Prior knowledge:
Layout: E1 50-64, E2 67-74, E3 83-86, E4 90-97, E5 106-107, H1 115-118, E6 126-132, E7 137-142, H2 149-155, E8 159-165, H3 171-174, E9 181-190, H4 194-199, E10 204-207, H5 213-216, E11 219-221, E12 226-235, E13 240-244, E14 251-254, E15 261-263, E16 268-270, E17 274-281, E18 287-293, H6 296-299, E19 304-309, E20 319-320, H7 329-338, E21 341-343, E22 355-356, E23 363-368, E24 373-374, E25 377-381, E26 385-390, E27 408-411, E28 426-430, E29 435-440, E30 448-454, H8 456-491
Parallel strand pairs: 1-4, 2-21, 3-8, 9-12, 9-20, 11-19, 22-25, 23-26, 25-30
Antiparallel strand pairs: 1-2, 4-6, 5-7, 7-8, 9-10, 12-17, 13-16, 13-18, 14-15, 14-17, 18-19, 23-24, 26-28, 27-29, 29-30
Amino acid sequence: MRTDNKQPDETDEQEPIEILQPMNDKQNGCIGCEGLPPTSYVQQDMEPDKKFTLTLTEGDVYLGKGVLYSGFTIDDKIPGPTLIVRQNEIVEIEVVNTGKIPHGMSIHAAYTQTSKYVGQIGAGETKSVKFKATYPGVYMYHCAPGGHAIPMHTLFGQYGMLVVLPDDGYELEKRGEKPDVELYLIQHEMYKTGKDAITGDPLYVLFNGQLFRYVEDPIKVRPGDKVRIYFLNVGPNIISTLHIVGVVWDHVYWQGHPDNVFVGGQTVLAGPSDSWVIDFRIPEDEGNYLLVTHAFGSATRGAIGVFSASYDHEEVDNVILADGPTYTEEELTEFRELAERIISPYEPTDIDEPYIITPEQQKATVEIIGNSFYPKVLKVPVGTEVEWINEDIFTYAEGEFAGIHDVAVTSGPEMFASPLLGHGEKFSYTFTEVGEYEYICVPHPYMKGKVIVYDPAENSSSQQSGFNIWYALPLAVVGMIVLPIIIRKFRN
């Protein structure tokens, strides 16, 4: 084969041309891929070794500490079920959409096309995909309807862990041993508003779906136990540095692959969707061993747990899955009634106090960002111009799959609707009638907002009345103290 830039002439001896086989030649295999496992592609009519069914919908979950969260769920919980398979098994995942909007599924363990099978699942539909779990590790799966909806549905709560166990195990199994305790652990975040979700400012950071879950219910172990953690930082935004106070790792495996082994260490560093398998021993000393992300801002928001080590434990927690807690509808009803607060990133709740505009300001702005209105509740004097501006950027596609929004009043003294707004586009409306206006985004009907319009004259009158009361109150108190003194003086 020629290696210079000359053009051959009639006297040049022609060398045979080497014809390279295509990389995806199924007869000859992948050139340069010797020693690598195959991809996950299988015919969709194959019989699976393992089958899982996941149900996607919108609903409420209880986070503990008196907090109810309204978002998107898998099997009515956050995180969704922990899926465990063995290397080289054929896996089928069936996805059922019982919600009111499109959902979908992205499966990080699948080294093949999945979006064409389970990427867009309409309300009421069921779809499935099959793949071969060729690479061992700890993987994330999450809702992925397509476009703008992929990050939003993940930010709102639809995710879980899928573990592919290696054929030969890890160093522990190679020594003929096995863990005494296995903890499947997800760190994840909850958001008060869609804007907070986009900017990465979580209200809470949790382990396995509940605030301080393993503080209130510590993980029981015995001194000397061999413990394995399958750890996944779902994020979707915050970095984690997992640490156990009083422990140095024996072996850790990046992404859970047995070939990616490190010895020793105090933490594992995990960005969103990063994962580790962590092997260590409980020291031969009874007591509590604190499990924490050493990014302490997140720890104080809920990401703390405890290993309780005692020789007196009659039983230990051999296997703890990463599933969020599951509650009956009766229990959820009670949680709603007794909740200290209810939060939702995309609609007003009791935690969303009105943002108040005074008459001097004359104009107010509502951002449309992260599939929510910000502020979600606005209080303005009559005659105020309110401007909505779309700060979502992904404006391809349409409906649930795009960041294209509008403003449509569903109840109030005056009814109006905006045109569809792309990124940076604005719509203004001047409110001339006192009352409460509730509105939605039609392409994303779970997005809700409220404008409360008040009469400044009435508001001023009530404020003046209140001022007089509070002004008179301290005078009355002083009078009650001073008057008896004066009376006694004159009597004397």
